[in-house]
């Protein structure tokens, strides 16, 4: 499906698992993308490939109603068909980056420009043009950067990786335990067993505790407001975050923030006669 979407600037998009390789072109505005390790910002006229089987979080950086992306999702079935038709030896893509920047190319800019006549009033492209446009974009990308074949035609699944390192880097992503298991190259049962051996805890309990500890640190030491951090730490609602925080630390997040301010004021106050 080809989509041309508008997203409000203040909205922080829900973090997600990237199911398919995605081509992202920013027509207007800017977007910040984060994969748990690296931040990338894409501005108007820039584009990238977001790789499948990765975790990602997005934040719109442009003004309200000023962000407009063009998105192509290359599903595995489509790519396998194209690979079968033109089987070639593909070189493994070496970069670990989730968001792979594409070299500037006039063919891509012209391609995006030519989509406009096929778009309806909502920005969606007519269904009859989908396959042809996908094919056209794929050809342009591979002609521009042949090494992208190492990404687009890689049909493997995540291999077993260091569980402790992965979880400590990605604990704030709000995805299912099954998704964490898949991304670390494990079945759900093996993931739970390995997790128990490593952390002496269940995944769900450990995740909540880890997020709450980080929240305490950010409020207490970094002076962050609860409303600024709860989404970034994997909590879906401020009320749920506040409830869990109070249950753990016997005071609310705002209570901790207020306590810190009061202590600071008292220490800085001098006696007067």
TrEMBL record:
UniProt cross-references to InterPro entries, sorted A to Z: AraC_XylS_family_regulators, ExsA-like_N, Homeodomain-like_sf, HTH_AraC
Keyword Lipid metabolism: no
Domain HTH araC/xylS-type: from-to ranges: 161-259
UniProt keyword terms in alphabetical order: DNA-binding, Transcription, Transcription regulation
Protein name: Helix-turn-helix transcriptional regulator
Biological source species: Pedobacter fastidiosus
């Amino acid at each position: 499906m080809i989509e041309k979407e508008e997203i409000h600037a203040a909205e922080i998009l829900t973090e997600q698992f990237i199911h398919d390789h995605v081509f992202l072109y920013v027509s207007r505005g800017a977007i910040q993308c984060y994969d748990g390790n690296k931040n990338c910002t894409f501005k108007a006229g820039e584009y990238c490939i977001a790789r499948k089987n990765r975790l990602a979080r997005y934040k719109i950086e442009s003004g309200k109603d000023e962000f407009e992306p063009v998105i192509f999702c290359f599903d595995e079935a489509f790519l396998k068909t194209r690979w079968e038709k033109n089987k070639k030896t593909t070189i493994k893509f070496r970069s670990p980056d989730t968001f792979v920047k594409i070299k500037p190319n006039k063919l891509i800019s012209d391609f995006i420009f030519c989509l406009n006549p096929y778009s309806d009033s909502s920005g969606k492209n007519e269904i009859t043009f989908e396959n042809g446009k996908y094919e056209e974009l794929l050809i342009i990308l591979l002609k521009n950067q042949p090494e992208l074949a190492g990404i687009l035609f890689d049909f493997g699944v995540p291999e077993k990786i260091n569980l402790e390192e992965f979880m400590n880097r990605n604990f704030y992503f709000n995805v299912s335990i099954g998704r964490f298991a898949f991304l670390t190259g494990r079945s759900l049962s093996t993931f739970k067993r390995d997790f128990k051996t490593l952390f002496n805890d269940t995944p769900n309990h450990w995740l909540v505790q880890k997020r709450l500890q980080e929240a305490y640190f950010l409020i207490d030491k970094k002076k962050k407001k609860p409303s600024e951090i709860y989404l970034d730490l994997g909590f879906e609602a401020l009320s749920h975050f506040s409830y869990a925080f109070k249950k753990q630390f016997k005071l609310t997040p705002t209570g901790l923030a207020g306590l810190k301010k009061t202590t600071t004021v008292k220490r800085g106050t001098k006696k007067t006669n």
